[in-house]
Amino acid sequence: MPTCLNAWCRQHFEISDTDLEFYEKVSPVFKERRELVPPPTLCPGCRMQRRFSHRNERHLYRRHCALSGRPLITIYPPDSPCTVYDKESWWGENWDPLTFGRSFSESEDFFSQFQSLRTTVPRLGTIDTNDEGSAYCSFCAFTKHCYLCTSCVVNENSLHCYQANDSRDCCDCYRVTGCELCYECIHCHGLNSCQHCKDCDTGSGLLFCDDCRGCNDCIGCKNLVNKSHWINNAPSTGEQVEALKTALRNHSELLRTEENFRSYARTLTTRASHLVQCENCTGDHLRNCRNTVNSYDAINLEDCSFMVPVPQGAKDCRDAHYCPNAELLYECLSGVRANRCLFSLYVWDDDDMLYSEECFSCKHCFGCVGLRHKQYCVLNKQYMKAEYEELVPRIIGHMRKTNEWGEFLSAHSSFFPYNLSIAQEDFPLTQHDVETRGWHWRVQTDEIPNVDHIIPAAQLPDRIDQIPDDILNWAIECDATKRPFRIIKQELDFYRQMHVPVPRFHPDERHRRRMALRNPRKLWKRNCGKCGKEMETTYSPERPEIVYCESCYLKEVY
């Protein structure tokens, strides 16, 4: 069993025969000779952390397009060394990424040459597509009139949502699918007019509910199936439910109810994992998956391992992040409709790409950045097919000597400070730890808001119907971080429609608190709290929850 090479980790990890077969299967072939991909040298967690360090999703900055001079919103901080273009310039015909091409030199390691190219070739300010009226969104597709949403697909009129798909009129939600008029919901599917729910499926009018399916107008419930008008897991009446909902429009009552529910929910049975219509799978929050190992937040996976998240399906992939409709990916970050891509970032509609980044509709490229509709390129230099198939094996041989072949880009080569990347959410580190490892850290400062005045959140009225329209001209000082934040008219309209008190926390703090409610993307061995058999779960043995295996949980609930 190998040991992770990271000095701060050094944990043992397993490489199965199935893994070895996969590495051979995805190994590139040139002139009928297969260049074998070696087994990984880092454990799955450290591999994920390394990939995640190259993705900033939620931190946006103001810069100017390096080509047109127009102002733009971008994921790259102003002090980042890369060149940034707005979408119109990047996709335009006034520049050619091949002009940045260079020949490979065997006197220097590959990653140094690739990093030089990465720093020079212009980059998109944000990566998104087919968005309408959603200027402050990143990594989104087919969104309409959304505000500060991230990694969302097919959303309309939503605000502050993260990884929400096929939803509309939602606010402050994480991993919701097919939802409408939802607020502060996490890992939910098919909900309507629900608030503060987690792991619920197909329901309406729910408040503070966990793991409820097919339920309507319930408050403070967990593990219910096909119930209506229940409060605290006990049958109630429609009048009592409506009276409590009215009371919960008051902010102080809402806080008290949330605290009581979270304490109460911990005393009830908890399922070991959320696997819906899955076969031979391990991980959590998987739906319609087969033969999938240690994967999370995914739909329609088949023969995959170490995947997170995947919103629209993937087949025969390992160690990939956000790769919908992809096949045969390994160590990739955002491979959308990609096929047979290795060690690459942001490859969309690509085929047979190695160590490439931000390439669209390309194939047979190695070490390229910013290409569109190209093939047989190395370090952004065009070659004939025969030349390409001669050169790439030579580069791979050189990389074997420098111990680079088979490794993803290191965290210190990221254009994002570690604390701004999504790695900080799953693998939080202090500034000291980050800098000790040679990675980057950025001290964030907020812009001074141009407002009439700043009001401490504690001084806000308790009810939304007591909030004047003039709040749009104020800034609110976050109760927890003291950071000022503003709300826009679209938000105010949503809060009024849903009878939700104005939030007391900065959007970043609200996001942090939602992320704290989810489990780690890691499996532990633990015994079922009822039958005693060993199971794999994201609940560590030290946690106080009463965790049941799937069989015992279903018997308990149904």
Short structural summary:
By secondary structure, the protein is of the alpha/beta class. Helices cover 21% and strands 27% of the residues. The protein has twelve helices and 35 strands.
Write structural notes for this entry.
This protein is an alpha/beta fold and 558 residues long. Among the domains are: 177-271, no CATH class; 453-517, no CATH class. The chain is 21% helix and 27% strand. The protein is built from 12 helices and 35 strands. Strands 17, 18, 19, 20, 21, 22, 23, 24, 25, 26, 27, 28 and 29 form a 13-stranded mixed sheet that branches. Strands 10, 11, 12 and 13 form a 4-stranded parallel sheet that branches. A hairpin with a 6-residue loop joins strand 31 and strand 32 (484-485).
Brief descriptors of the model:
558 residues; alpha/beta; 13-stranded mixed sheet; 12 helices; 35 strands; 21% helix; globular
Give the SSE map.
Layout: H1 17-26, E1 29-30, E2 33-34, H2 44-52, E3 61-64, E4 71-74, E5 84-85, H3 87-90, H4 110-120, E6 123-124, E7 141-144, E8 153-156, E9 165-168, E10 174-177, E11 180-183, E12 186-195, E13 201-204, E14 230-231, E15 234-235, H5 238-247, H6 251-265, E16 269-271, E17 275-276, E18 279-287, E19 290-299, E20 301-307, E21 314-315, E22 318-321, E23 326-336, E24 339-348, E25 351-354, E26 357-360, E27 363-366, E28 375-378, E29 381-382, H7 385-401, H8 423-426, H9 431-436, E30 453-456, E31 474-477, E32 484-485, H10 489-498, H11 507-517, E33 524-527, E34 534-537, E35 546-548, H12 550-557
Parallel strand pairs: 5-6, 7-8, 8-9, 10-12, 11-12, 12-13, 16-35, 17-18, 18-19, 19-20, 20-21, 20-22, 21-23, 22-23, 23-24, 24-25, 24-26, 25-27, 27-28, 30-31
Antiparallel strand pairs: 1-2, 3-4, 14-15, 28-29, 31-32, 33-34
